[in-house]
Design goal:
The chain is of the alpha+beta class.
């Protein structure tokens, strides 16, 4: 994430899958750099609204996620360098969760909740 002027900070959103933080227009223009293959946010403003959230807590800047204990702790060690939220509030639509699972992934909510099958 590059510098975001104060006037643009209200447009920041966090991906509900990987928690990367970007301005809304960047999600629309480029998609999510970690999740694009199964979220398909690029050029889909409605999907950006459904799969990202303006409600998030804390920020982590990761320069080298593969070597960071914080990245491992946040389950970000396979992600691109960038700025990530510690906690992202929101729920993905069920069809999006299903597409993640169909792609071989496992969705773990970034809001601190745990599904029944994970407890």
């Amino acid at each position: 994430m590059s510098f975001v002027p104060g006037s643009q900070q209200r447009h920041l959103r966090a991906c509900m899958v990987c928690s990367i933080v970007q301005v809304q227009q960047r999600f629309i223009r480029e998609g999510c750099p970690n999740c694009e293959s199964f979220l398909g946010l690029q050029n889909h403003p409605d999907s950006v609204q459904e799969c990202t959230s303006q409600v998030f807590e804390g920020l982590i800047t990761l320069a080298d996620p593969s070597k960071s204990w914080v990245a491992r702790w946040q389950r970000l060690d396979g992600c691109v360098p960038g700025v990530y939220a510690v906690k992202v509030v929101g729920q993905l639509p069920e069809e999006v969760v299903q597409s993640i699972e169909d792609a071989g992934g496992r969705y773990v909510p970034r809001d601190g909740t745990v599904h029944d099958d994970e407890a």
